[in-house]
Amino acid sequence: MLLFRQIIFVAAISAGLHVCAQKDMSWSENYGKTIAVFGGSFSVYKESDIAKNYWAEKLNLTITNYGKGGAGFSNLTQAHNIQHEVDLACAADKPQYDIYLLWASTNDFSKANKQIGSPDDYTAADGYDTTKLQTQCGGINYCIKKIYEKSPKAKILFFTSIKCFRKPNVGTNPYYKGSHGLNRFVEAQIACCKRWGIPYLDQFTEAPFNEYNFSSYVKKDRLHLNTEGYKAIMNMQATFIAVH
User: Fold this and answer.
1) Where are the alpha helices (DSSP H) in the chain?
2) Which CATH number characterizes residue 133's domain?
3) % of the chain at pLDDT higher than 70
């Protein structure tokens, strides 16, 4: 069944993300589930409601959004970081959600002194070194650990960062050779997911945005998606949730 769902998702990407034209995705084991969303501005700006409402419509999801603009995984991004968002969702008075979605922003790349870290940060490998909570990887691992402590059978999904057009080459080039390009942060996000066996959607690679067409999908700030940007990725996101 898992292989079948993966084939469906690959087919969706290959077909230009225009599959699943049916009224819903009731075939998915995630149909009718509850989902908690964590992230920065990409997950909370009003334009993002287009995508989230689409997921809800196709999958009959009940969505609770804990995201806040400016948040990243590092605890240096701001007082309200994604670690804090997960703390709020995992409080004793909160329910256990069926799905926990970690949606990476670009804030770890643009803030937090560019500390990427290692996939072993804040794990048993370093004795849960709290100084590593300053790195992107340490923050990701903290969130995963906290969620599993709250809900051991929870399904965790991950959306990677999308290209950042404020910093051409460093923010958009998937082959950038420097140590602190956005591609390095995305590679580390994926490495953390692989460490835990968590499904991830590589939006940095799969989202149809590039230096030639981004003005059609991105706001004048050259960073945040406009309405058309979310429309361009919402089916890819919904299909990913459906098959995982």
Assistant:
1) 2-14, 48-59, 82-89, 107-110, 136-150, 182-196, 203-206, 227-243
2) 3.40.50.1110
3) 90
pLDDT tens digits, residue range 33-71? 999 999 999 999 999 999 999 999 999 999 999 999 999
Domain of residue 140 covers: 27-243
Q: What is the pTM of this model?
A: 0.91
Distance CA 61, CA 185 (A): 30
In a domain, 113, yes or no: yes
Beta strands in the chain (DSSP E): 34-39, 62-65, 99-103, 155-159, 200-201
pLDDT digits (tens, 9 = 90+) for 79-94: 789 999 999 999 999 9
Tokens of 107: 């804030």
Q: Which residues contact 117 (CB under 8 A, 6 or more apart)?
A: 132, 135, 136, 137, 138, 188
- In a 3-state reduction of DSSP, which class is residue 34? strand
